[in-house]
Amino acid sequence: MAGDYTVSKGAPLEEVVIAVYSRATELAFQPNLYFAQFAQTKRWDLNRAPVPGDTVVFTIYNNLAPKTTPLSDEYSDIDRVPVTVAQKSIELKEYGNLVTVTNRLRVTAFDNIDLAVARVVGANMANSVDLIARQAYDAQEGSNYVTYVGGGTQPSDITSDDIITAEYLRKAYVKLERANVPKFDGGFYIAVLHPDVIYDLKSEGYGTPNNVGTWRAPREYCDPEELYNGEIGSFEGFRIISSSNARIQESAGGDGCDVYTSYFLGYQAVAYAEGQKPGLRLTGPMDNLGRTLNIGWYGLFGFGELRPDALHKVFSASSVA
Asked: What is the model's pLDDT at position 23?
């Protein structure tokens, strides 16, 4: 029959093998929501529909100064002191992404194209939101809030030998604690570190008499249902979060090494304002015959610094890089 696939007698086996495609879908490896999960959240008043450019205001009540002197006598009135506040405004901005698929592609594709594209778009949404959140962590680079391994003052002072050690975690812990930064549940601060940096920390001192620090598995200090995304254990008073989204400045070091940012934070370091929660959207058809379908994500939200004392960053190299 015309069009039939035929193989001549004696043909090699490879000629009778044809490609078979699974209708299951596989995604490229993606990070998850790591930075965004620690933001202090405030959602817009549902009685008012937010519009782009609106802001959400966070009000912080300052502590009163300690009063350590006794009252003068039983007949004298005490001086009144005001309660002061600080306000931080987070601007709501629109974010989103979009993929268009055609009816022809959906009908003829071997894969379940609708499911595949929805998963790709969903992964893009999570990764994008997390990197938007990280921008708020990266914004503050004042000298009081950053440390450069090796004692420098800028990324170009970092060299390949300037890898992070447990000492820098202990110093970051002290900086947060002496500023009276509240801890998260369980009495820990949080550290978000790149996997390359975690490798250096785990390698430090192993097999030597002066082994430094003790890593604890998550099951030793919290219920598995209470784990944060990316949590791998605790070390030096921090619950350690492993994230490939931690910032890397490629070749920014003095000898061309990559410079890693490690984040150490307490409660209310970063704020998240939500006008409309990021989510998937299906729109279309956009042509007269209804042949196209748009699959995308959209959100109206913003991240910003809330309490600068609650976040400290350490810049370092890594032996892995």
From this structure: 44
Question: SS3 for 292?
Answer: strand
Token couple for 79: 């001086």
Provide the CA 256 distance to its chain's centre, in angstroms: 26
Whether residue 14 is contained in a domain is answered as no
Residue 194 tokens read as 């790149």
**Which residues does residue 298 pair with via DSSP β-bridges, in sequence order?**
96, 279
What are the backbone dihedrals phi and psi of residue 262, each rounded to the nearest 5 degrees, phi first? -115, 140
CA dist 191 and 236 (Å) reads 10
State pTM to two decimals: 0.81
Give the tens place of pLDDT for each residue, 102-127.
888 777 777 777 788 888 888 899 99
Q: Are 317 and 257 in contact (CB under 8 A)?
A: yes
Question: Which domain does 127 fall in, by range?
Answer: 36-62+84-136+273-304
3-class SS of residue 266: coil
For the record, the structure tokens of 48 come out as 């008012």
Tell me, yes or no, whether 151 lies in a domain.
yes
Query: Per the domain annotation, does 321 fall within a domain?
Result: no
Residue pair 265/275 in contact (Cβ under 8 Å)? The answer is no
Same domain, residue pair 159 and 124? no
Q: Quote the tokens at residue 91.
A: 């601007």
For the purposes of burial, counting CB atoms within 10 Å of the CB of 35, is it exposed (0-12), middle (13-18) or buried (19 or more)? Answer: buried
Number of domains, the chain? 2
Task: Give the tens place of pLDDT for each residue, 196-247.
Answer: 999 999 988 544 444 455 788 777 777 766 788 899 999 999 999 999 999 9
